[in-house]
Specification:
The structure is a homodimer of 384-residue chains. With 384 residues, chain A is an alpha+beta fold. The first copy, chain A, has one domain: Coproporphyrinogen III oxidase, aerobic (oxygen-dependent coproporphyrinogen oxidase), CATH 3.40.1500.10. Chain A is built from 11 helices and 10 strands. In chain A, strands 1, 2, 3, 4, 5, 6 and 9 form a 7-stranded antiparallel sheet that branches. In chain A, helix 1 packs parallel to helix 7 and helix 5 runs antiparallel to helix 7. The two termini of chain A are 34 Å apart. The N terminus of chain A is likely disordered. The interface between A and B is large, with 47 and 47 residues. Chains A, B: Its EC number is 1.3.3.3. Chains A, B: Pathway: Porphyrin-containing compound metabolism; protoporphyrin-IX biosynthesis; protoporphyrinogen-IX from coproporphyrinogen-III (O2 route): step 1/1. Chains A, B: It is an enzyme of class 1 (oxidoreductase). Chains A, B: This is Oxygen-dependent coproporphyrinogen-III oxidase, mitochondrial. Chains A, B: It catalyses: coproporphyrinogen III + O2 + 2 H(+) = protoporphyrinogen IX + 2 CO2 + 2 H2O.
Chain lengths: 384, 384
Amino acid sequence: MPYTGEQFHLVHRTAQENTPLLLLQPCLALYKPFIHMIPQSQAAALTKPGYLTLVRRNVLRALGQQPPLPTPHRPGCDARAFPPPLPLPAAASTGGGQPGATPAPGTGSRPRGTQLGQPLLCVLQDGEVFEKAGVNVSVVFGILSEEAARQMRSRGKSLKAKDGKLPFCAMGVSSVIHPKNPHVPTMHFNYRYFEIEEADGTIQWWFGGGTDLTPTYLNEEDAVHFHKTLKEACDKHDLKLYPKYKKWCDDYFYIKHRGERRGIGGIFFDDVDSPSKEEVFQFVKSCAKAVVPCYIPIVKRHYHDSFTPEEKLWQQLRRGRYVEFNLLYDRGTKFGLLTPGSRIESILMSLPLTARWEYMHTPPESSKEAEILEVLRNPKDWVH
Amino acid sequence: MPYTGEQFHLVHRTAQENTPLLLLQPCLALYKPFIHMIPQSQAAALTKPGYLTLVRRNVLRALGQQPPLPTPHRPGCDARAFPPPLPLPAAASTGGGQPGATPAPGTGSRPRGTQLGQPLLCVLQDGEVFEKAGVNVSVVFGILSEEAARQMRSRGKSLKAKDGKLPFCAMGVSSVIHPKNPHVPTMHFNYRYFEIEEADGTIQWWFGGGTDLTPTYLNEEDAVHFHKTLKEACDKHDLKLYPKYKKWCDDYFYIKHRGERRGIGGIFFDDVDSPSKEEVFQFVKSCAKAVVPCYIPIVKRHYHDSFTPEEKLWQQLRRGRYVEFNLLYDRGTKFGLLTPGSRIESILMSLPLTARWEYMHTPPESSKEAEILEVLRNPKDWVH
């Protein structure tokens, strides 16, 4: 999560403390059929009731501070159950990485947010099916910097700070999967939850997230399946959601200087805080549960498809556009990279393993390459 | 050149009208030994005396406007000598590109600057020696947008606008060369000249530019040769210039989120408007003339060196950092991409043909990869 604050601080919250972590369960399931990289012990520990409370208590203890308010006792909440810091799984082809990123020399900065334990981050590189795939689970809390608060305000949130300080807590799961085969599309999803404590003690909360697909070549059947699955997840809650969030997705993933979308969209939403926390959470869970059924059938259908060197090359050029979007426009990436103390390797996990830029590459008219470009320039409605 | 304005306007200047174009001559020479891609006829036309005056007159005529002030007659300035729009040379491996970039649909924007004729842009892809190499010559004039003017002001220029309008003229040459062989470094140079007309008719002018080297592996002899050649070019004008511009280069090409410089530096300067236009121009010409002798001997020394797949892979990872710098930090790239009507393909010509991102790649201690990283993290003085 890119949001970090200026100093360690406990945000006391009494209700639904660990509920957003339940979002993980459907997301983690995504990786089971193909990656087998997330040890079940870790997944289980993270989703265990009371985990979050215990992590906080432990962090405070480690810093020699005590929680300003006692954390209410809960059934199943036992200090001995506190899991040790989660080791980062070694990246497949790099011989294993160091868990902590080296601080940038010359930046003179210190971390401004507190990560609860090690982030649960898994990256697969050079796999059989996936060229690069990662999942990043993060829980951060602290004091929002004025810069971060301004960013939120510009998105419509009115926040009353006490002495310029806004305690916050953020948690989320994000994932990008870049397959090897150009007939299998890239998929990205991110679901996140924020809380901010205002001067008068009011808790502002909201959810954000989305799931979107980036094919190298257009397959209409896949596009319809993907959007239909997401629409069904949305429709269970409110028929207005899918059309609204489908358009938001097309608008958000717009590579302005190219006049193209990054992919064929999906759903995207942010700052959602109505009708009620419980209802939005139910909606977000439905979206997260739809990740596996909207994507995995497409992977299974195509990962054995044969492809030509020219098709691989076109995929690499599209990966170049993916890099352009992520580095130039993606709010999370930009914000994260500009925030001292953030974990660069986690933020840039979304970049493909390889990418390519050719000067003035223009596919021939009526080619398969021109067909996908047309859809990226003029988004279609895939389901009605 | 990224600077564009809001509407067509003639900036009348009476002296040294085409002198900055003379900068081209040493730069064009750089490409002769290896690329043979710039037809001599074009190079000759661009550097012909009176060319700029003639291009302006022709643009005004095409727009049905007349110059507000008559252009003084010059010897050798003959309307019949006006060259036709320069055709864009076809990019080697793309089957030839379209000269005009398609405007981004949905941006609803129009060009805000006027390019004098077609830009002289040459790109080589997949060559024997160079993986991707381009040279871009551009002359633009118009009215500075308030945004662009603000950018300049933030860099220390105080500009008095008339009704919020600042007529400007900008011209420059830029080039990036990404070689195939990982033992041949990437080289970049850019030399540019600006003029802005203030409310009272005062002309503000300044030069900017620089030359810098980005090796995949450190070769101390090459690094010393490169910096020594640049230092000699600077020292002819003022002994203070090289140390100042060497440091400016290390500071500018800093990838903050990585804590690394893009390469081993060179020289970089901006907003230089003293001691006099003629003296600065002489200095810039010396820098431009140094491009060939500082780089070509290094290319010749190494382009036949043998290399392993692992060395090629490390080169690709470094190319990824090059992309990160250019898309996230480079002022010209960012400004150009955000300016409606700018020519995207020219701006992104600087990106490498291919790049790679691996999660948590950390070279082993005391390896050749760690050696270059050390220098990128802690810049060295190569000449004293």
